[in-house]
Write a structure and sequence with these properties.
single chain, mainly beta
């Protein structure tokens, strides 16, 4: 797994046509904007058919304050 840090307004490109941008950071939550081709299905993992079978995994706590997301 590749782990990146991004500031609000910064983005990550996947291939040539998928862009994921950090739109907002508030407390322990972030909002992501996803630009992808219309024929590409984008789902949250909790919305997948087998999500009830998978154990819920909590993200590890970070030592950085959420407003200090860095490159």
């Amino acid at each position: 797994m590749l782990i990146l840090t991004r500031k609000v307004g910064e983005a990550v490109l996947i291939g040539e046509n998928i862009r994921i941008m950090v739109v907002q950071a508030r407390g322990k939550q972030i909002s992501l904007g996803i630009e992808a081709p219309p024929d590409l299905l984008v789902l949250r993992t909790e919305d997948t058919p087998d999500s009830e079978k998978k154990p819920k995994v909590q993200a590890p706590e970070t030592s950085l304050p959420t407003n200090a997301i860095a490159k």
